[in-house]
Amino acid sequence: MPAATLVVPACLLVTALLVGPMVYLGRISLNHYDASSMMTEALTLENYVRAVADPYYRGVMATTLTMALVCTTTTLILGFPVAYWIARMQSSWKSLVTVMTLMPLLVGNVVRVAGWVGLLGNQGFVNAGLQGVGLIDEPIRILYTPFAVALGTVAVVLPYMILTLASVIEAIPRNVEEAAANLGAPPATVFSRVVWPLALPGVAAGCTLVFILCMNTFATAVLLGGSQFKMMAPAVYDQFSKGSNWPFGAALAFILLIATLTLTVLGSVLIARRSRRRVAA
Amino acid sequence: MAGRVGVRALIVLAYVIIFAPMVTVAIISFFDQEIVSVPPEALTLKWYVNAWAQRDFARGFVTSLQIASIATLIGVPLGTLAALGLARSSFRGKEAVNTFLLAPLAVPAIVAGSALYLYYVMAENVLDMDIKGTLGGLIAANVLLTIPWTVRLVSASLAGLDRSAEEAAANLGARPFTVFRRITLPMMRPGIVAAALFSFVASFENLELNLLLVGPGRVTLPVAMLSYLEFRMDPTLAAVATVQIALIAAMMLITDRFVKLSRVV
């Protein structure tokens, strides 16, 4: 028996439980819906057209994209120093720090959201602290703002960015940096001319992963954003849980998926081209 | 020098953002008053008792435990076989198969969850049986989650594996199955242990995939917490969250004693 056959059971499972449902979702998205006769079989793009044309859903998409871009950038800025620090750590603390960074990956988003509510709420730690030192008289509104969602999202995705970057930075030989420094490059130049270009593949991988996660923020958006704030993933869920307009929900789901994939592929290509040019130069 | 201080500040800020919500939830769970306000009037452990007395949380905990353990028991062997197949063969499209098996993590959970929901409803009509809201339906969805984690982690442990020990055993007359059982499997153990840990916890903590698939009387813990949080945040919920954080941290530290997680992941 060739070893390759060992992949068959897992592939069958993914086909049955992911490909099948996704194809079915795609088919449903082409159906027609109206309130009186509910869903009727059809082959129409009207749901996609409506999702793209409707100003409300355009707004939801704009919010989602802005949020994902802001959070990905912030995560990169915060995560890079941490990743570099872990990658270059030589003490026995390294494995503990790595496990500590790994641990939050496994803690569910709902658990974390509960913490943010306690921190950012009107009677939460932050407001109580600010009032305690006399900076503010009345509690300021932090919870149920886009800022709260961004903060909560960054906290969720940071460990992914740190671990992805750290594994790439670790592979950059230390003596390349030392050589640049010995030749008189100040730290900022060593970073911009040596570390950053060599870390670009990791930056691409980390940003791709984080961007996908940000585009699909659900619990954080629902619970920290308040009722006025809407992102794509909750909008998709609403169509299935509250409304019964399955075709439109399916179309929204595909738009979210396609937008995410297109942008991540585009981003990776841009970064890859850039890194090739850097290496050539 | 100023640059170095700035970099240190960013590192501290990153860890504060990561850990602040978890530390807060743990602190709140000991507050005496029911409506969360700072500073606390007194400290107590009563919310932990109360959390278990709340049927929704206790049941959710048991349901999630069932689903996550059975999904792990099914998914990890399947994923391990696939990782072994990928590592020990070369065929055209091998990269594609690898990507395909990692796809359940790349497709947004809420999209996959919606798709499974519609698929289950259709299958219910065709087969004339309940799937949505059943243990079987939930387990199937969660097995999907365990495959990519397992393939990724076991593949990583196989990549650094020295095959000469296997060849030596085979040359000394060991049969293929003996080679597998006595040499290959023990060498894969760190990857499999890490895969089991990540599969179990990823499934236990998953919200989005299960959200539309739960049914009356069978709600997972994260879904129960979400519906509670939509109305209020109180120390009872904080206690439920704290127990999870503590369990996850304990599982990771125990696992780390046997296999160095920082090396496999």
Can you put this structure into words, describing what you see?
Chain B: Residues 61-255 form the ABC transmembrane type-1 domain. The complex is a heterodimer of chains A (281) and B (265). With 281 residues, chain A is mainly α. Chain A has a single domain (47-280), classed as MetI-like fold (Orthogonal Bundle), CATH 1.10.3720. Helices cover 75% and strands 2% of the residues of chain A. Chain A is built from twelve helices and two strands, in the order αββααααααααααα. Chain A has helices spanning 8-28, 46-53, 55-87, 93-106, 109-120, 125-132, 146-170, 174-182, 187-215, 219-224, 232-241, 246-280, and strands spanning 32-34, 38-40. In chain A, a hairpin with a 3-residue loop joins strand 1 and strand 2. In chain A, helix 3 (55-87) runs parallel beside helix 7, helix 8 runs antiparallel to helix 9 and helix 11 (232-241) packs antiparallel against helix 12. By secondary structure, chain B is mainly α. Chain B has one domain (46-264): MetI-like (MetI-like fold). Chain B contains twelve helices and no strands. In chain B, helix 3 crosses helix 6, helix 3 runs antiparallel to helix 8 (176-205) and helix 3 crosses helix 10. The two termini of chain B are 34 Å apart. The chains are: A mainly alpha (281), B mainly alpha (265). Chains A and B meet through helix 1, helix 3, helix 4, helix 5 and helix 6 of A and helix 1, helix 3, helix 4, helix 5 and helix 6 of B.
